[in-house]
């Protein structure tokens, strides 16, 4: 998918993705020529269609996780997985740990690994709810 | 208003959705490169004993010392894991999910290991539009069951398909012409008609059909072993003739005392299906 600024005949740059929380999805693009910004908004059904393909609009910054699409969308049992996810060398604030504890077991290990990788890639030493919020937006972890 | 088309705008497509899908397919290819044979057990009809044949075939091959996996592709009504005595939880590491281990060392992956007891298959997503995206979700699940499971090097991966032909088409899309099809029927004319459509679909998808298995060709009395008729018809023979393939096996319904005997060693399906697995 590419966006073209008709005024400047320039390809617009991807700026950021956003997940307003109502099942919709937004991706912002800006023209490098005139600076004009636009947001592409997908309704919940369109968002779901794209997610069902196991792909990410805006591209992937992290590798696909094992059974990512299934774990992100199947209503499954809490004890289905035993995560061997050593996430060492990273501090988790008590608030971040509380928040992680509220994630269903079915996906908790995978979500924790995603947050940890996100933090490591950005040299973040401590995971806080604010970091988790940024990661949710950047990585499209809505619904997890 | 006139403006440039997609290919004329030469900057990179930051989403790269096509490349992301391409990488998914590459993961499937890489996983299947370690698998000797992909044996797809299917039927156009439900209730003919596909899972009985799949699990019996897998166990029979494993008892011969082969490395065997069983992928339960019946996402909504999974039974293979239970028949093989495979249990979770499933171990997950950074790269893959490790399959459960069933009887005779058969590696097993099934949605049964992911769902709550008695719970139906259910996906999160917007209500009211499920018919639009559910099929894509399920094809994606089959893809991940192949690509993200640590099957390792296998001599055979047996795929237990649900009734109908949709999942077979998904498998063919994902695995190319790798799957070799074994079609299961019961003797009745209704089954013959349904299985004929499924075999035709497999051939149209470019898959090799190794042959037909006729299940419940009669009823074997547990007392005297006499085989009595059970269904009218000769679907196994008729399908083999119609498609020019082998009738690989034909066996009667044999009552068992408990579920653990559902694939009893006395019926070695790998041996019965030797034409298909040779």
Q: What report would you give on this structure?
A:
Chain A has 144 residues and is an alpha+beta fold. Chain A has two domains: 1-59, N-terminal domain of TfIIb (Single Sheet); 60-144, Helicase, Ruva Protein, domain 3, CATH 1.10.8.550. Chain A is built from five helices and eight strands; from the N terminus they run E-E-E-E-E-H-H-E-E-H-H-E-H. Chain A has helices at 44-52, 68-73, 94-101, 105-121, 129-139, and strands at 4-5, 10-11, 13-18, 25-30, 37-42, 81-83, 91-92, 126-127. Chain A has a three-stranded antiparallel beta sheet with strand order 3-4-5. In chain A, strands 1-2 form a two-stranded antiparallel sheet. Chain A has a two-stranded parallel ribbon with strand order 7-8. In chain A, a hairpin with a 6-residue loop joins strand 4 (25-30) and strand 5. In chain A, helix 4 (105-121) packs across helix 5. Chain A is globular. The two termini of chain A are 26 Å apart. In chain A, 35% of the residues are buried. The model of chain A has no long low-confidence stretch (mean pLDDT 84). Chain B has 278 residues and is an alpha/beta fold. Chain B has one domain: P-loop containing nucleotide triphosphate hydrolases (Rossmann fold, 3-Layer(aba) Sandwich). Helices cover 34% and strands 21% of the residues of chain B. In chain B, strands 1, 2, 4, 5, 6, 7, 8, 9 and 10 form a nine-stranded mixed beta sheet that branches. Chains A and B meet through helix 1, helix 2, strand 6 and helix 4 of A and helix 1, strand 3 and helix 4 of B. Strand 6 of chain A pairs parallel with strand 3 (90-92) of chain B.
Low-confidence stretches of chain B: none
Overall structural class of chain B, as computed from helix and strand content, comes to alpha/beta
Greatest interface by residues involved: A-B, 46 and 50 residues
The count of strands of chain B amounts to 10
What is Rg of chain A?
17 Å
CATH architecture of chain B: 3-Layer(aba) Sandwich
Quote the distance from N terminus to C terminus of chain A.
Answer: 26 Å
* CATH topology (fold) name of the largest domain in chain A: Helicase, Ruva Protein, domain 3
